[in-house]
Amino acid sequence: MIGTQLLADVRDAAVEGTRLLRRRLHERELGRHHGPLPSAIEAERRTLQTADAGMLSYYADASAPGRPLVLIHGVHAAASSYEMRSLFNELRGERPVYALDLPGFGFSQRGGTRYTPDTYVRAIEHLLRHVADERQEDRADIVALSLSSEYVARVAADLPELVHSIVFISPTGFGTDAETSGLMLQARRGEASMLWPTLAKLGGEALFDLLVSRRSLSYYLRRSFAGRVDTNLLEYSYATSHQRGAEVAPLAFISGALFPSGDPLDAYARIRVPVLVLYDQDPHTGFGALRSFIQRHDNFQSARVIDTRGLPQIEARERTARAVRAFWDRISPQRHAA
């Protein structure tokens, strides 16, 4: 009984403490912005209603002929299609280009569901099917960033008829155990998801407010750039993370609930289409297992975009685009043909 009461007292104190913290954060103007969110990309923005991933928003420039390209941003506290803006603009006009706002981010539906890896796998699948129907093209090329690479891997393995090739940028899952955080390892074993309801109850929104303050966003972005931080990305990160419901999907990510369980290398090994991995240094993941994996899988190749730290498509846009185009030329010299 004493132990039970002690736990109850600790819980009540934690809840009251987080309420106080939230009030003080709002007093310091760290609360939700609630202002209108500008478009991440200057392109037509469309929506797609789904039963299992909610309303999906995506950007499209379908003016050019050829095989469609689908861009998938990463997953973190302030994620959005802005991360893929530079590649979208670099490649539009050469071929049809689409950029998805994943569920819980950007203009896609926020809240109203419990986010899991399956939520994101289904969202990517829905967009790929929609694009295939629209273009009358059975397979698309995909470029995916960071954790989203693991979702794309599952789609490509299970639905190869939708995927022609993949470029992974700074993908998670290729680090050795020594390069992988304890929380991520727990998530791989299916243990970390238990943190999600606890985090949500014990002031998760207050924690989120701290993570998406300008100071915090600037700190994390500095870690992801070898040179100067893209200030426009910082401003958009702040805007998108201060929309109503912006905390729901990121809190699931922070809890570890969005990392697929199991060995990610097993998921990557199931892919049969050509894959290019672009990487260099990344403060959030490692690549210690990449070389040996590629040696065992002929459909994988890699290229290092030196002097970058996780966002080469922004910091080294031209070099990244050249590497992607060279990859497409190697696997399909007539890539512009429908």
CATH architecture grouping? 3-Layer(aba) Sandwich
| CATH superfamily grouping | Alpha/Beta hydrolase fold, catalytic domain
Stretches where pLDDT falls below 50 for ≥5 residues? 1-10, 26-31
Helix content: 40-55%
Quaternary form: single chain
- The structural domain count equals 1
Taken from the alpha-carbon principal axes, the silhouette is: globular
Summed over residues and divided by their number, the pLDDT gives a mean of 87
Please tell me how large the radius of gyration is: 20 Å
> Could you state the order of secondary-structure elements as H and E?
HEEEHEHEHEHHHHHHHEHEHH
Task: Estimate what percentage of residues fall within beta strands.
Answer: 5-15%
CATH class descriptor: Alpha Beta
CATH topology: Rossmann fold
Tally the helices.
14
Short description:
The chain is an alpha/beta fold. It is 43% helix and 13% strand.
What attributes does this structure have?
338 residues, Rossmann fold, disordered N terminus
Provide structural commentary.
- β7 (275-279), α12 and β8 (300-304) form a beta-alpha-beta unit.
- It is globular, with a radius of gyration of 20 Å.
- It has 14 helices and eight strands.
- With 338 residues, the protein is α/β, with parallel strands linked by helices.
- The longest helix has 26 residues, at 2-27.
- The protein has a single domain, classed as Alpha/Beta hydrolase fold, catalytic domain (Rossmann fold), CATH 3.40.50.1820.
- α1 runs parallel beside α7 (204-211), α3 packs across α4 and α8 (214-223) crosses α9 (231-240).
- It has an eight-stranded mixed β-sheet, sandwiched between helices.
- Helix content is 43%, strand content 13%.
- The protein has helices at 2-27, 85-91, 117-135, 148-158, 182-188, 195-201, 204-211, 214-223, 231-240, 248-254, 264-269, 290-296, 312-315, 317-331; strands at 44-49, 55-61, 69-72, 97-101, 140-145, 163-169, 275-279, 300-304.
